[in-house]
Write a structure and sequence with these properties.
Blueprint (H helix, E strand, L loop, with lengths): L5 H4 L52 E5 L4 E7 L3 H12 L1 H6 E7 L7 H11 L7 E5 L3 H5 L17 H8 L3 H6 L1 E2 L2 E2 L1 E3 L6 E5 H8 L4 H8 L7 H12 L9 H8 L7 E2 L2 E2 L3 H15 L11 H8 L8 E4 L1 H11 L14 E4 L10 E5 L6 H12 L7 H7 L16 H5 L14 H10 L9 H16 L5 H16 L2
Parallel strand pairs: 2-3, 2-4
Antiparallel strand pairs: 1-3, 4-13, 5-6, 7-13, 8-11, 8-12, 9-10
Helix pairs in contact: 12-19, 19-20
């Protein structure tokens, strides 16, 4: 197969608002905005994606300055989430704002604008090049390991004692996989987006006689990296009139991110056994009535969140942002009042480990302000103290005197000492389940082409499960579409 054309790869379709990436309406209070995906989808059921280079439309950058120092640090981001962190850091360390001015450029991923603009600025270099830039999980490998990784500084080169800090903070291993180039960390995140199984307590109690997360974990085979017991549970739920999931997309991320290989191995399109098995999983869910045949981010999916489906689904699979934002905003009133499902959700470790989303911070190797860049990046990604960004994030205390959303962070150390009790889960401390989920997640099967290829695969799987193509026909259609799109 031919090599993928570099210009195509640099703008390969990516999730517009993927996990951990808030919209540009993010307020200074962490936890008041959508921490997850944009609620629009392509026809395949995948999240909305950035367009190819030919479809990219110009996006007017949002620019502003933080601090008033004589030394300048250029920060590029696709939301104002990280710039808000700069504000928080300056409020805690006013001397940083007196020494540095952080020149912020925000370009949304909408219409494919962010990556081409970032690529051009990195290539041009000079005083206008970004010193710090953010990348979402859907396209971060391009900047940490792929075609644009040459611009990234290692955290060690910045002067950060990264190995010691990772050990001290208990950073989720999968994020290190994603953020490392040739064994050296060049990017880390502040969220943990390892997934858990998020299930309805009332349905669990009715069908299984318990809603205790520890017992439900045994029933579904949590941590086994197998689906056997989960399908046994699906059959029992079906007998009681409940599909186990809303749609096959609820299982896809577990399959995708637990695969033995990525989509591309040595320049060749590769379908791992785990991903090929998703053909059978999708068809099984449909044929056995184990799902409501919904598509992610569509009305029927949200109906299962708020309990208004004809046959309500038992569970979803996702990171904390799915629970804290998408589900919380769509689950309706309190379960006790008889309206909606708020308070009726619980979380436990999943059968198969996975992650979904996340935002990473990367530094330019040519920055003139290594000290300031390192200081801020370390505070965001590696500081596990009670005054580090992640402690505020986990406890919802980004704004003094207010309690926002309690979100999962990259540091297990921080989550272990934080209060993860949330009302949507009836007061359950959600952090232990997500800490466990982070252990199972792996970032070793990612490639920088994933969003484009995932979309084609989901299309092919849908055609197979709907009976439009046989198995071989679906695989052939997938390969043809990828070849046409990425010029393999």
């Amino acid at each position: 197969m031919k090599k993928v054309i570099a210009s195509v790869l640099s703008v390969a379709m990516v999730a517009a608002f993927a996990a951990g990436c808030t919209t540009t309406e993010t307020s200074a209070t962490q936890g008041t905005t959508a921490g997850g995906e944009d609620e629009t989808v392509a026809t395949s059921g995948e999240e909305s994606t950035e367009s190819s280079e030919e479809e990219t439309t110009e996006e007017t950058p949002e620019k502003f300055n933080l601090g008033n120092g004589s030394e300048h640090i250029n920060l590029w981001s696709f939301t104002n989430e990280v710039p808000n962190m700069v504000n928080k850091y300056i409020s805690l360390h006013p001397e940083f704002g007196e020494k540095y001015t952080v020149d912020v450029t925000i370009i949304a991923t909408t219409n494919g604008a962010y990556q081409p603009a970032l690529d051009a600025a990195l290539a041009a270099g000079g005083q206008d090049a970004p010193d710090i830039y953010t990348a979402e999980a859907a396209f971060v490998l391009k900047y940490t390991q792929g075609s644009a990784s040459q611009f990234a500084a290692t955290y060690k080169d910045l002067g950060i004692d990264v190995d010691a800090k990772i050990a001290e903070a208990g950073i989720a291993p999968y994020t290190i996989d994603i953020g490392s180039r040739n064994g050296e960390v060049v990017g880390l995140g502040y969220q943990a987006t390892g997934g858990a199984m998020i299930y309805r307590a009332s349905i669990a109690k009715e069908v299984f006689g318990t809603d205790d997360p520890a017992e439900i974990e045994k029933i579904v085979g949590a941590g086994t990296q197998k689906w056997d017991k989960f399908w046994e549970a699906a059959a029992k739920l079906k007998e009681a009139g409940y599909p186990i999931v809303s749609g096959d997309g609820d299982v896809w991320h577990s399959v995708e991110n637990s695969s033995s290989t990525g989509w591309v191995v040595n320049g060749e399109l590769t379908i791992s056994p785990e991903r090929e098995a998703f053909l059978d999983i999708s068809k099984q869910l449909k044929d056995n009535g184990w799902s409501n045949l919904s598509s992610d981010w569509q009305p029927a999916w949200f109906a299962d969140m708020n309990g208004t489906s004809e046959h309500n689904a038992f569970c979803f699979f996702g990171p904390a942002w799915l629970l804290n934002y998408s589900m919380k905003d769509n689950c309706g009133g309190s379960f006790e009042s008889g309206e909606g499902t708020f308070g009726d959700w619980r979380v436990c470790a999943p059968p198969v480990g996975f992650y979904w989303g996340g935002t990473y911070l990367i530094a330019n190797k040519d920055t003139d302000n290594k000290e300031g860049v390192a200081e801020f990046i370390e505070w965001v990604t590696l500081d596990s103290s009670d005054t580090g960004l992640q402690y505020f994030w986990a406890n919802g205390t980004m704004v003094d005197g207010e309690v926002g959303t309690k979100d999962c962070v990259a540091s297990a150390t921080v989550m272990a000492k934080s209060n993860g009790e949330v009302d949507i889960c009836g007061g359950q401390n959600i952090f232990p389940a997500f800490i466990e989920g982070n252990k199972y997640a792996s970032g070793k099967c990612m490639t920088e082409y994933d969003e484009t290829i995932n979309s084609a695969w989901r299309d092919a799987v849908n055609m197979y499960s709907n009976g439009e193509l046989d198995r071989d026909g679906a695989i052939d259609a997938f390969k043809t579409k990828v070849n046409d799109t990425l010029s393999f």
